[in-house]
Write a structure and sequence with these properties.
about 450 residues; alpha+beta; four-stranded antiparallel sheet; 10 helices; 18 strands
């Protein structure tokens, strides 16, 4: 090789050396570096901003508390995840890679009633579904379940559900739908259980105080042109004093007794710690019995699915004809399967917040003190709201008042205070924002 070729070869190697050197570089995002502005540390400075976000809930780290997933709308959308912590929302980009590529819109809902949030997202002219699955290491992944989500009409014909790419459909979990249906039925005026006036009444114990003599509710009664206020049995008020032997009860005095008893007896530190211990035992016992119910429902589900598969196999093999009878039988199996899935999902969900199991004794004391102060604060607008959360019934007979509550009510009150989500706006008042409309 002559000197000229040697020089050219050396020059070429020197030129491409930086290329190989740069190819070995690996850039890793650091989202933990703190950013300060005017002496204050910014929260989630590396999360970036939002343009047209769509928010959904999902338990990302499987700690029993719902976290936040934001989908940024676009032809090719992006996902941003935030964990729910005691100090607020924390940006968690390590979960982004678990989500598939999506466009236009995304909603997290429980598609198959297994207690896990699945993805509903846009495809041209329709909706696709990605099912969440838990891997062996405890992390999650999404696997496509439906390319085009179908609906079945009254004649049993399946066709894709059309959703324009510019629209976001309203999708509700089957369990939530069933709960709402049951709540609507319970509030129907004809069933005798709805008491909408009690929610808007200024009376502290409205709707929960009952006469211990006849079992009817007690309501406000006044004397001396409103100078005196009493609780009076509704049967006496509506039918006359002969209908019940109960007495009128001074409202201010009874309200004070109930508030003091709840604050200083039920929420007394030692009593509260005992209740929390019993509550944890109750949760554990409930888990065991709930698992037995789930196992029984899953056996019924398996039998139903086997019946449906046998029927479909018989139709496909020509043993039976696809007629009105077999179609009706197939629809019955399908309806039974959906009902069992709803029951399983409902059984898997507990009315008690999972995080209550991990409340420290110091936190229990702190929340108890906060609840006591809210109940005993003079002219507290929140006292009635917390009484309604904590108490199910106040039964009064002669000089004795029996106060009834529940583990779930106390646990949820404390959990709401911990999470800062105690929403005390009554659900039955259409005009709860006084003297303002929704557009003001």
């Amino acid at each position: 090789m002559n000197q000229y070729l040697k020089l050219n070869l050396i020059s070429f190697l020197l030129l491409i050396a930086p290329v190989f050197t740069l190819a070995q570089l690996k850039i890793i995002a650091d989202n933990e570096t703190a950013v300060w502005l005017n002496g204050e540390e910014l929260a989630n400075p590396w999360a970036g901003g939002f343009n047209t976000p769509q928010f959904s809930e999902m338990d990302l780290n499987k700690d029993g508390v719902m976290d936040l997933v934001a989908f940024e709308r676009g032809f090719y959308g992006s996902v941003k995840c935030f964990l729910h912590t005691d100090s607020g929302w924390k940006y968690a980009p390590e979960y982004h890679h678990s989500f598939p590529e999506m466009r236009n819109w995304m909603l997290l809902r429980d598609y198959n009633c297994d207690g896990l949030m699945d993805i509903f997202t846009s495809v041209p002219g329709g909706v696709s579904v990605w099912q969440q699955q838990i891997k062996n290491d405890g992390s999650f992944q999404f696997v496509k379940r439906e390319n085009f989500l179908q609906s079945t009409d009254a004649e049993g014909v399946d066709s894709p559900i059309y959703v324009a790419v510019t629209d976001i459909p309203a999708i509700v979990d089957a369990v939530i739908f069933e709960r709402v249906r049951m709540v609507r039925e319970s509030r129907a005026p004809g069933n005798g259980t709805a008491i909408p006036k009690a929610m808007s009444s200024p009376v502290l114990l409205a709707g929960i105080i009952k006469c211990g003599v006849c079992g009817h509710r007690m309501t406000l009664s006044t004397g001396k042109s409103g100078a005196y206020r009493y609780y009076k049995c509704t049967s006496r008020r509506g039918q006359g004093n002969h209908a019940c032997t109960s007495k009128n009860l001074p409202m201010e005095k009874l309200d004070g007794i109930v508030l003091n008893q709840v604050a200083n007896t039920v929420l007394q530190p030692e009593r509260l710690q005992t209740l929390m211990t019993e509550l944890r035992e109750h949760i554990q016992s409930g888990k065991n019995s709930r698992q037995e119910v789930i196992s029984d429902l899953e056996r019924q589900l398996k039998n139903t699915e086997e019946r449906q598969n046998r029927l479909l196999d018989a139709i496909e093999s020509g043993i039976v004809d696809l007629d009105e009878v077999t179609h009706r039988r197939s629809q019955q199996n399908k309806t039974a399967r959906e009902a069992l899935l709803i029951q399983i999902a409902e059984a898997r969900r507990t009315t008690l917040p999972a995080a209550i199991e991990y409340l420290k004794p110091s936190q229990v004391d702190l929340f108890g003190k906060a609840l006591r102060s809210k109940l005993l604060a003079k002219d507290s607008a929140l006292a009635k709201g917390y009484i309604r959360i904590l108490l199910d019934e106040v039964l009064v007979e002669d000089d004795t008042a029996t106060i009834k509550g529940s583990y779930a009510a106390l646990a949820n009150a404390m959990h709401q205070m911990k999470m800062g989500t105690n929403n005390l706006v009554p659900t039955l008042i259409p005009n709860w924002c006084a003297r303002r409309d929704s557009n003001s």
